[in-house]
């Protein structure tokens, strides 16, 4: 029979397990969607970061979109070391230079957009993707410059360009320098159109402000994910400015599509296939389009 004496002595003194030997449950094993559905993180990743029970599309960044869209997640990152300066010496509750350093440390990113060149379904392509975790995906001078350079690279290689927007709008800490990026990126997209190269714009949650007023709505094909918030000013601002109640679903992707600002809404698992299909249609490649849609 087991000697219970040691057990009682241990209970009296308390468990003396060293801190480094304790086994805590690793963080991030579960995800809870806004509708209350709980899913294992591993299952979520395998399902393209979409909650399988309620189809809620979780906000993801460039790392995850590149995994989804580039073949075998192989790509060459463009202008990876480009970082913002603080020419205006902006300061409110914190210096802008300190905010930049904090955002870089927190996210591991240099700024709110990453650009890459690789293959998608065997086709050479340039993709620019915004990251909301970096100062709300705000559009500063580096964001505009990296997008402009990515478009230049697409023209140099004569390949399609895909823009994935996820932004709160212009970066106020850069003032006019930020607003200049609306004109610069729009001008570059006009050059891309003159070169007769496809531009697919994917609006994800949220796509607002100056981003919506420039490159996000200039695609040959404008698409979105289900339920994404898309608009210029947010619903609260619009309601206060107009003094009117807003219709149900105002500024959701479905509402925006119904009013003619989007061409298509795609589930995330179909994005790679759909984007390549649209590119083939723009380039008048019916044989390949049939192969993709089959």
UniProtKB/TrEMBL annotation:
Its EC number is 2.1.3.15. Its main location: cytoplasm. Keywords: ATP-binding, Cytoplasm, Fatty acid biosynthesis, Fatty acid metabolism, Ligase, Lipid biosynthesis, Lipid metabolism, Nucleotide-binding, Transferase. GO terms for cellular component: acetyl-CoA carboxylase complex. GO terms for biological process: fatty acid biosynthetic process; malonyl-CoA biosynthetic process. Pathway: Lipid metabolism; malonyl-CoA biosynthesis; malonyl-CoA from acetyl-CoA: step 1/1. GO terms for molecular function: acetyl-CoA carboxylase activity; ATP binding; carboxyl- or carbamoyltransferase activity. Belongs to the AccD/PCCB family. This is Acetyl-coenzyme A carboxylase carboxyl transferase subunit beta. The lineage of its organism: Bacteria, Pseudomonadati, Bacteroidota, Flavobacteriia, Flavobacteriales. The gene is accD.
């Amino acid at each position: 029979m087991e000697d219970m004496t040691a057990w009682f002595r241990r209970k009296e003194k308390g468990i003396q397990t060293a801190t480094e030997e304790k086994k805590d449950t690793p963080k991030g094993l579960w995800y809870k969607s806004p509708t209350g559905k709980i899913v294992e993180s591993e299952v979520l990743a395998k399902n393209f970061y979409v909650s399988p029970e309620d189809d809620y599309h979780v906000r993801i960044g460039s790392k995850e979109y590149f995994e989804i869209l580039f073949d075998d997640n192989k790509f060459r990152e463009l202008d990876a070391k480009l970082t913002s300066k603080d020419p205006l010496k902006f300061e409110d509750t914190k210096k802008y230079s300190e905010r930049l350093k904090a955002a870089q440390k927190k996210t591991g990113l240099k700024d709110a957009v990453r650009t890459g060149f690789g293959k998608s379904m065997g086709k050479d392509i340039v993709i620019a993707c915004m990251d909301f975790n970096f100062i709300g995906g705000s559009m500063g001078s580096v964001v505009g410059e990296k997008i402009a350079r990515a478009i230049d690279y697409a023209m140099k290689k004569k390949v399609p360009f895909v823009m994935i927007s996820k932004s709160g709008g212009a970066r106020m800490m850069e003032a006019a320098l930020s607003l200049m990026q609306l004109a610069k990126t729009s001008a570059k997209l006009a050059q891309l159109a003159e070169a007769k190269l496809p531009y697919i714009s994917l609006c994800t949650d949220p796509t607002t402000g100056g981003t919506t007023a420039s490159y996000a709505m200039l695609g040959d094909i404008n698409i979105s994910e289900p339920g994404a918030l898309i608009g210029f000013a947010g619903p609260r601002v619009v309601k206060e400015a107009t003094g009117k109640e807003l219709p149900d679903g105002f500024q959701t992707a479905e509402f925006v599509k119904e009013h003619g600002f989007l061409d298509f809404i795609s589930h995330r698992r179909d994005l790679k296939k759909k984007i390549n299909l649209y590119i083939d249609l723009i380039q008048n490649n019916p044989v390949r389009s049939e192969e993709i849609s089959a």
